[in-house]
Amino acid sequence: MLGTVLGVGVFVAVLALTTTVTHQIGKSFDVLRATTVTVVDGTPAAPKAAAPPGPDARTGFPADTDARLSALNGVVAGGLWWTVPLRNPAIATRPVAEATASGGRGGTVGLYAATPGTLAAMEPTLDSGVLFNSFHQERGEHVCVLGAAAARVLGITRLDNQPAVFVNNTPYTVVGIISDTRRLPESLLGVIIPARTALAAYGAPVDRPAQSVIHVRLGAAALIAQQAPLALRPDQPRLLSAEAPPDPRSLRDKVSTDLSGLFLLLAAICLGVGALGIANTTLVAVLERTGEIGLRRSLGARPRHIGVQFLAESTTLGVLGGLIGTSLGLVTVLVIAVAEHWTAVVEPATVLPAPLVGGLVGLVAGCYPALRAARIEPLEALRR
């Protein structure tokens, strides 16, 4: 019965926890995905005659991208960003010659260009300092914002002494350090400089196209994905490709289905282990009670009576194990949900049939021992 208790308990707990966890995953996943829209420049290389560039001829996006996106109803913030087109840039806290001599170069640090609207759309958490703003953007100031990982690599932990980061010997004053961000997580291992400064110093993006990331309100993603290219490029909206988030319901259902299938397989394995335990116990009982079986057969019991007796015993063990296992499984789910501050979600279709599942497991597990007991001959049994 202990095998069935464990099997059914794990079965109920796993299925209920799967429902609970997928509910939490789906809720968090939907909110982030459903509030992000990305617009990609369709002409990242040199503009073609059939595909005229935008007002800012170097990116294909207008120079006032932030303002145009903010004017759309449903947009919280949005802006333009790209990876600065430098091959292996020398990023350090000192000029290149000094940094090379002391090993102080940030070889793993990336370099990104962004507008103030992009920084707002990222929803960053500032560790210290401030974000650069439209003043720095319009004047092309040599300032930068560091991601937390980049700051650690470069050894910058404080801003009161106005540290600078050198990019190919060009100094950029660090005005802020970002400890976390909801969007564009790659920026945490990078140096972010104003977009206009990047265009003037390093030119337009080459290998990777410029992109616009937009933070939208819940429910507005599909509409903004349709309106953003037209608002940014009314002359050639097809040159910009808007990527709306996929349907959150289908994503949540897919996550739930995948997790449910995986954990259902694990629960089935646990039930199989419980079935083997019952079969082993019942078979040992048959071997130990051979004399009792022989005596019953000599008093007139037929093979079917012996078989039914052992099937009834194994089924009873299964039902009792199912009841106890169901109770323990529910208690486990409630304890975990309370500890994690979740809402416990338990399907009645999972809990109610569980004792019957335990009985079925016991019935199946007892078939072979019962068949073996029914085939014992009375004379041979009494001789033992």
Task: Tell me what the structure shows.
It is a multi-pass membrane protein. Its main location: membrane. Keywords: Cell membrane, Membrane, Transmembrane, Transmembrane helix. InterPro entries: ABC3_permease_C, MacB_PCD, Macrolide_Exporter_MacB. By secondary structure, the chain is an alpha+beta fold. The chain folds into 2 domains: 2-26 and 250-383, no CATH class; 38-246, no CATH class. Helix content is 53%, strand content 17%. It has 15 helices and 11 strands. Strand 7 (164-167) and strand 8 (170-181) form a beta hairpin. The longest helix is centred in the C-terminal third of the chain and has 41 residues, at 248-288.
What's the SSE blueprint?
Blueprint: H1 2-33, E1 36-41, H2 65-70, E2 75-83, E3 91-92, H3 96-102, E4 110-114, H4 116-121, E5 124-129, H5 134-139, E6 143-147, H6 148-154, E7 164-167, E8 170-181, E9 190-194, H7 195-202, E10 211-216, H8 221-232, E11 240-243, H9 248-288, H10 290-298, H11 303-340, H12 348-351, H13 354-365, H14 367-374, H15 378-383
Parallel strand pairs: 4-9, 6-8
Antiparallel strand pairs: 1-10, 1-11, 2-4, 2-10, 3-7, 5-8, 6-9, 7-8
Helix pairs in contact: 1-9, 1-11, 1-13, 9-11, 9-13, 9-14, 11-13, 11-14
Low-confidence stretches: 44-55, 99-105
Instruction: Describe the main β-sheet briefly.
Output: 11 strands, mixed
Which value, in Å, is the CA radius of gyration?
34 Å
What's the total number of strands? 11
Q: How many helix segments?
A: 15
